[in-house]
Recover the amino acids of this structure.
């Protein structure tokens, strides 16, 4: 599958199957990212998940006195910012080099 952007054919990037969340001694995985989700859709959902984690951590940090919770809240905020910047980098044709 390709996307026509400015007259150029660009391959549409999609997820591969990725199982996660070990749930037993046999290394069985309980959850999975399914194959075939577009990069835009996957990044949008990942950003939403990170936003929920960020909100919960900041609520928890505000109600307590544990600097480790603040650190976790800020790390999640940083990771969410990176996720949100990826589509812009792709749209602009930038790389990490």
């Amino acid at each position: 599958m390709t996307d026509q952007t400015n007259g150029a054919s660009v391959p549409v990037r999609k997820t591969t199957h990725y199982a996660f969340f070990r749930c037993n001694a046999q290394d069985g995985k309980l959850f999975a990212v399914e194959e075939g989700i577009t990069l835009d859709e996957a990044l949008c959902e990942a950003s939403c998940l990170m936003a929920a984690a960020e909100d919960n951590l900041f609520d928890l940090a505000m109600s307590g006195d544990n600097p480790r919770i603040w650190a976790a809240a800020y790390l999640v905020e940083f990771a969410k910012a990176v996720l949100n910047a990826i589509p812009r980098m792709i749209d602009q044709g930038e790389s990490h080099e």
Q: What stands out?
A: Residues 1-37 form one domain.
